[in-house]
Amino acid sequence: MGFWGKYRDLGVKYRDFGARYRDTDYAPPPSSAPPPSGHTPCRPRSHVVFLKTHKTGGSSVVNVLSRYGESRQLRFALPHRYQFGYPSPFRAERVRGFRPGRTFDIICHHMRFNLSEVQRVMPNDSFYFSIVRDPGTLGESSFSYFRAAAPAFRNSPSLDAFLSSPWRFFRPGIRGNHYARNLQWFDFGLPDPVEPQKIPGILQNLERIFPLVLLAENFDESLVLLRHELCWPRFSVDSFAHNSRDRGRSRISAEQTRRLRAWNSLDWALYSHFNRSFWVKAEKFGIARLRKEAEELRERRRVLAGKCLKGGGPVPPKSIAAAELRPFQPPGGGRILGFALREGLQGEERERCGRMAMPELPYKDLLERAQFGGNGSGSVGG
């Protein structure tokens, strides 16, 4: 059975925590001050394309988008299963309920990006954004998480062994090996191999499609910029860190980081480009203002974790009694942490905490039930 086929054996019927959110769950208090002088009022965007890249913090972003969209009864472009035919390029027919001329409000689940096909599904005024991570750390995370999926990783006894002689283990074109090299470049649907002199032009064109690309290393600052780009309420980006890994005592060395960046040279070019563009936007926004809002976001997260979560943070899956809150565990990979709700939560507070704690897969099923009825239980790969 393949890596993603493991989902089919979960056998969990995810239950709904209750009625859908009211808009007031995200609306600012009535006494909120007007926009600062010089700031033009904006209209919230409801047409959003998020390219969810692997092992970059994208699951936390999907949770934000899922809660916002559900609270406003927006229509999600959902896969028939849990991904849009990944690793094949995205096609509009992979969207449940798609028909020519019909568009959706939000698309945010795993795909290999294909602009022309996404445009068949999403309105012309959609806001496109994504997230990237330094391949020096992403590569180590991928080695652990995708060990069973990528033959290049599976056949290597350790990360050090792989990095000392990657071509001994890696064969291009073998199913699953896209996880082992330039994974972000692959997720963006970019050509590989590519002539080095063409890379700057490719990245400049990509930036025209994606006016904002978040940085995993500056996640809270990224959420602040995203919120302002979308013109969403301040509390709409409050979130917990989903899909985090229990690393134990493992640490990546400077030499491993250097080798991972060299092995994933296209990802390093991609990350470097969007790292620069991110900080250009941050300077324009105002660094002091950005840091202040990011710290306010972190403080709200601390308060919410204390209110909502047993133990105040992520816990091992065996500590999570509610089946619908247990995150998927990759076969052969590192243990993925999740969230258990504090006892005694009631009503709207339990509902909001439950939505913030809910992993991506059961939340997708919940959204599917709301839009299409039925049990909303899918399986990965379609």
In the CATH classification, which architecture applies? 3-Layer(aba) Sandwich
How many independent structural domains? 1
Radius of gyration, in Å, reads 20 Å
Strand order of the largest sheet: 2-1-3-4
List the helices and strands and how they pair.
Layout: E1 48-51, H1 58-71, E2 106-107, H2 115-118, E3 127-132, H3 135-145, H4 151-154, H5 159-164, H6 183-187, H7 199-209, E4 212-215, H8 219-230, H9 254-263, H10 265-285, H11 287-308, H12 347-357, H13 360-372
Parallel strand pairs: 1-2, 1-3, 3-4
Structure description:
This protein is mainly alpha-helical and 382 residues long. The chain has helices spanning 58-71, 115-118, 135-145, 151-154, 159-164, 183-187, 199-209, 219-230, 254-263, 265-285, 287-308, 347-357, 360-372, and strands spanning 48-51, 106-107, 127-132, 212-215. Helices cover 38% and strands 4% of the residues. Strands 2-1-3-4 form a four-stranded parallel beta sheet, with helices on both faces. It starts with 47 loop residues before the first strand and ends in a 10-residue tail after the last helix.
The gist of it:
38% of the residues lie in helices and 4% in strands. It is mostly helical.
Defining traits:
382 residues; Rossmann fold; 4 strands; mainly alpha; 38% helix; 4% strand; single chain
